[in-house]
Amino acid sequence: xxxxxxxxxxxxxxxxxxxxxxxxxxxxxxxxxxxxxxxxxxxxxxxxxxxxxxxxxxxxxxxxxxxxxxxxxxxxxxxxxxxxxxxxxxxxxxxxxxxxxxxxxxxxxxxxxxxxxxxxxxxxxxxxxxxxxxxxxxxxxxxxxxxxxxxxxxxxxxxxxxxxxxxxxxxxxxxxxxxxxxxxxxxxxxxxxxxxxxxxxxxxxxxxxxxxxxxxxxxxxxxxxxxxxxxxxxxxxxxxxxxxxxxxxxxxxxxxxxxxxxxxxxxxxxxxxxxxxxxxxxxxxxxxxxxxxxxxxxxxxxxxxxxxxxxxxxxxxxxxxxxxxxxxxxxxxxxxxxxxxxxxxxxxxxxxxxxxxxxxxxxxxxxxxxxxxxxxxxxxxxxxxxxxxxxxxxxxxxxxxxxxxxxxxxxxxxxxxxxxxxxxxxxxxxxxxxxxxxxxxxxxxxxxxxxxxxxxxx
Length: 458
Hints:
Number of strands: 12
Shape: globular
Helix content: 25-40%
Oligomer: single chain
Radius of gyration: 21 Å
């Protein structure tokens, strides 16, 4: 069941002032400049469903051939790992992602890519760029980034001219200069989305970039709660765009904020390596907008981040199954880490069980003034309150795999969308588990532990 803990899941790279008074909702607003050892390991490419298909039907073959021709002039330099679109399509066919039917409407990844190529795109977005971006992310989800990219001055002026006089951005254009975005929870969801649910990911891309500028999800009520009335309450509290109910389902409209298309058009024309591409913009905006009760503004990247319940809600919508978010840490009113709601061994087992079941784990971790080395904030003054384990910053990342050494020690293989590096990053369990604030899991995996762990969580 989705819980109501108010932890904001985002990060900036600006130094933390020792004078800042941290509220638990702001924990994930603050920086981690640490980079762990980058891993060369290839995480298991296990899809979160069975019945993998790698054989093209005659209709599939026609669509596949059309895409090969349509994308034949896309420069290889624009794609990840220096793979041509043809090579990426072949890779996705062989690993089962291309013909995956993980979509909410039972369509395949191929079906949705073909739809992008053969139907009009909103605001004349470039269909080739959109498909190329999608292939990049599906082929290599670790390239997902939350780096916004700059807006050319002439484009910035055109935006300002289009805004009403009372718009805050018109009064302060620097609000558009997003240097450290607050979309780490959305970007982490995007990584998992593309990694394990490729057909639904491609469907969101197709619909959000198409003329309807929205995707409709037939959501099972038990994906939010086993209690239908509680599920409806969650939908109402989060102001979901409901289109109609049946006895066990609700039709949701998922859309971006209107300014996402301004950002998308800019990235369509002026994308630079290391910045979000068009697909990142649309997917992250849709997640932010849906999670934030339709209040997100892509131009200024506000409100800043998603609280934990909002992030879990969108994850449940994407996967169409119940996600239970467990809060592992005890943090007092002065923002000191004072204890844990279960053992580190149990935390580790939850993660391993989820990876073994074929899914990723989106986690939020915190750093405290006791954290040493590169992770210690040079701006923190322990004399501020004299307390150890003061929470000073945090981040949201995705665990996609794990390794064990000969002694059984676990290392987690992760994707960090804010480290400016498309490679995997590794954290030892000994380093990460003490910092683990919360994580989301398929409900059945943690059902036996949920009540005990969450009993003391307000």
